[in-house]
Write a structure and sequence with these properties.
Layout lengths: L26 H9 L3 H12 L3 H14 L7 E7 L5 H14 L4 E6 L9 H4 L5 H4 L4 E3 L8 H18 L3 E7 L4 H6 L4 E7 L11 H6 L2 E5 L6 H16 L11 E4 L8 H16 L3 H27 L2 H15 L5 H11 L4
Parallel strand pairs: 1-4, 1-5, 2-3, 2-4, 5-6, 6-7
Bound molecules: guanosine-5'-triphosphate (GTP) and magnesium ion.
Length: 348
């Protein structure tokens, strides 16, 4: 295997850049390197945006603004499903399929809950071994962060950098338990839900909300003795989807079966994604969706920043503690306490 061509990120461990020596390029070199398709500069630019140092944060924004005209030219695909459903194995199969057809594929992850062995993708990197060595693929682990918002932001920014480097397909893996799938839905064009055929429990234990978010469902591990159950599950899910109101875009989610291990159904899923893209490109629906996602991102950032500024203010915290005491003993109502602190925010 030719490792020389590999884009695979070599940092197999998490590095807190805030505690390591800064080793930065000039802003213009990040921009020119990334936009000329240099993957080593891409890796370094991602390390920069993952840093929490204020100077790095400022530089990251300059780099991102510099590469912005070169972004947006990829198809962004989110892949979710419960732990162990087969997301990574599926991404390996789909990613390889696309690389073989000349696409350049970047694989990212949003998994704030994962503290195991350096992020979910690296944790099970063996599942993507072949893809990780393909010259057209780039795999980056889930960034660290103590909040979902922070992790999601870094993944969005990483996605933009990958696009500017020339990757035309972005695959984002996220675990479909908790809120990370909502964050990923808000940054991709197509959202694929992976499911397993269960013994008669096809529609149990599934969060309805996730199904409603999906643009497509793949019943995976449809191989060996699972084939029959998977076909049955496909019909059950397809029927269940009919019960949901149609989405604003007029797209009807489809359900397909696949086996990542046997490489079946992968092309069918790709065709489903392509017909979705075609549907969304008509009447500029895809552009509209992305514009809305960007606006939402701006508001999320403002909200998060306002919260941080407020809760990091020592005077406000002092006042809150005192008000908390008064609320506990019913000296004042929670509403009055909240109003007092919000009014005083401008003085503290
Ligand atoms: N039979 C069969 N097994 C599969 C298939 N895809 C994945 N598996 C197996 O299912 C297990 C979990 O696969 P992963 O790809 O790691 O699943 P995941 O959803 O990424 O798991 P997390 O990242 O832990 O949430 C592994 O043992 C795989 O070999 C498939 O198509 N068929
Ligand atoms: Mg995985």
């Amino acid at each position: 295997m030719d490792r020389g061509n590999s884009y695979y990120c070599t940092c197999y461990f998490r590095v807190d850049m805030a505690t390591t020596k800064r080793n930065r390029l000039p802003t213009s070199e990040y921009i020119s390197g990334v936009t000329s398709g240099d993957v080593l500069t891409l890796s370094r630019a991602i390390t920069l945006i993952e840093s929490t140092l204020p100077a790095d944060r400022k530089m990251s924004q300059e780099v991102l603004n510099g590469v912005l005209p070169n972004t947006g030219k990829s198809l962004r695909i989110g892949i979710t499903g419960v732990p162990g459903v087969g997301k990574s194995t599926f991404i390996e199969a789909l990613g390889l399929h696309l690389c073989k057809h000349g696409h350049k594929v970047a694989v990212l992850a949003v998994d704030p809950s994962s503290q195991r062995s350096g992020g979910s993708i690296l944790g099970d990197k063996t599942r993507m071994e072949e893809l990780s060595h393909h010259k057209n693929a780039f795999i980056r682990p889930s960034p660290t962060g103590n909040s979902l918002g922070g992790v999601a932001n870094k993944t969005r920014e990483t996605m933009l950098l990958c696009e500017a480097t020339g990757f035309d397909i972005i695959l984002i893996e996220t675990v479909g338990v908790g809120q990370s799938e909502v964050a990923v839905k808000g940054m991709v064009d197509f959202f694929l839900l992976l499911m397993l055929a269960g013994a008669g429990d096809e529609l149990q234990g599934i969060k309805k909300g996730i199904m409603e978010m999906a643009d497509g469902i793949a019943i995976t591990k449809a191989d060996t003795e699972n084939i029959k159950a998977s076909k049955k599950a496909r019909l059950a899910y397809q029927n269940a989807l009919h019960l949901f109101p149609p989405s604003d875009t007029g797209w009807y989610p489809k359900v397909v079966t696949c086996s990542a291990l046997e490489n079946t159904g992968i092309e069918e899923i790709w065709q489903m994604i392509k017909s979705y893209e075609e549907h969304m490109t008509k009447d500029n629906k895809l552009i509209g969706q992305r514009q809305q996602q960007n606006v939402n991102w701006m508001y999320e950032t403002i909200n998060a920043e306002l919260r941080n500024q407020f809760y990091e203010n020592p005077k406000a915290m002092e006042m809150i503690k005192e008000l908390e005491r008064k609320v506990k003993i019913a000296e004042i109502t929670p509403q009055t306490a909240a109003q007092l602190i919000l009014n005083s925010k401008f003085e503290v």
